[in-house]
Structure to design on (120 residues):
């Protein structure tokens, strides 16, 4: 059974940086894409970034381009989200997800989320 566990959330000031980690286990991820999503209170979940496990091609939501960077450590089965120049509107629960390449995120695997709070 695939399990995803997020680490690294917290409370920071605007302009600070955070790095989230997602430890993946229970599967062979060679045909997976890994992603980060977030959901702010009262809002719908939104895509942040994704990376293909093999090859490392990344995809980042336009609005986060330049501030957020996704990466993966193949040996550690871990995906990272480096977030720089954080803004109060980045406050949300951040979720790690995994899906087979070409599959739907909704039908994939999800972590429980980690809270990120950015104060002005």
């Amino acid at each position: 059974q695939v399990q995803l566990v997020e680490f690294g959330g917290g409370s920071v000031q605007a302009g600070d940086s955070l790095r989230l980690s997602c430890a993946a286990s229970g599967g062979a991820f060679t045909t997976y894409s890994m992603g980060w999503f977030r959901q702010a209170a009262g809002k719908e979940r939104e895509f942040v970034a994704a990376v293909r496990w093999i090859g490392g091609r990344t995809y980042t939501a336009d609005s986060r381009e330049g501030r957020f960077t996704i990466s993966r450590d193949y040996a550690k089965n871990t995906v990272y989200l480096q977030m720089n120049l954080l803004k109060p509107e980045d406050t949300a629960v951040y979720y790690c997800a995994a899906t087979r390449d070409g599959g739907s995120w909704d039908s994939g695997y999800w972590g429980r989320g980690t809270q990120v709070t950015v104060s002005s």
